[in-house]
Write the structure tokens for this entry.
Amino acid sequence: MTSTAASPLTPTFPSKLPQVGTTIFSVMSALAAEHDAVNLGQGFPDFECDPALVDAVTQAMKAGHNQYPPMPGIPALREAVASKIEATYGRKYCANAEITITSGATQAILTAILAIVHAGDEVIVLDPCYDSYAPNIELAGGIVVRVPLTPGTFRPDFSLIGGAISPRTRALIINSPHNPSATVWSAEDMLALQELLAPTNILLISDEVYEHMVFDGAEHQSTARFPGLAARAFVVSSFGKTFHVTGWKVGTVAAPAYLTAEFRKVHQFNVFTVNTPMQYGLAEYLKEPAPYLQLPAFYQAKRDLFREGLEGSRLKLLPNTGSYFQCVDTTNVSDLNESDFCQWLVREVGVAAIPLSAFYGDGFNQGVVRFCFAKKDETLHEAIRRLKKL
Ligand code: PMP
């Protein structure tokens, strides 16, 4: 590996992110490849997307849609997204002034944070949380305020969240369905949040990239459904998750015009535009709602296959009500901490997982690791075969 230490000729400077190293996802994926392990670590499908989507993008390229699109995204895609949100969650966003196409949810979240967080502003995140939130806040000069979800159940504790609010709180970031815990916020949770935030000026970033992975007949409680939340929120989603194309990096942000205007001020100098043929292809593909309407059943079947396969093993399954992740309690199998357990598992058993401690600011260890079941059935069967030996 090439050393990243500065040579004597390179001027040094204080790191913007001194605590940050290579993410656990890259580390585990590299280990998985090295040990020929089944990679249930990083969250991406190992199967192909719908060929019709690839055809739609190919058509767009052949039709000459290969130059810069409009800064906020092509109108056809923004209109398709606005219609989808209205049909799904009953809220009408103006395609022109309230929907922006982004380079994945990752850029959407960073851009929203850069647009609203001033130096010294506090932003509340709920631990465990997706690993980009805290560095994004720090890059904006903000202060990360971590509030734990309830250990064991991962439920939000609104009195704890309320207790963390200060006059300097600029924003709160929520994520349902939740990575990594695979829990989902109920309508009551959203109403409680709406009530908590009502007397405040706190903005909300609602990370809903797994919006179409809610199971057992339940509905996704999008922030868009709750007027008091939607009025203060950037609602973020990702086509990568919904259409099995994580490498395309195309996402969306829906936010009231006032927030969108500020978002776009940053967006135009941060990416300016998002690649054109993908946008045309996605706009065409969205004409048919079946692919995203069928997604819950598609992933529920994979969840059930994986859970049933591990039933009776010494790994204890935690509930999954949404997302494509399955958490397991490893304490019946080993005393190792989560990180060491994952290293051991990939080497000795040949299955890659992610330690939950990677999603906590303080590396909190509860003997729980996360598997991703967005995999071909045969991949899941092979992982089950190996894990059953434990
Ligand atoms: N938020 C969460 C909770 C995620 O799990 C992910 C992807 N792993 C993202 C955001 C990033 O999505 P994208 O690939 O569209 O940037």
The radius of gyration is 21 Å. Residues 24-43+293-387 form a domain with the Aspartate Aminotransferase, domain 1 fold (CATH 3.90.1150.10). The chain has a mean pLDDT of 96. The first strand starts at residue 38 and ends at 39.
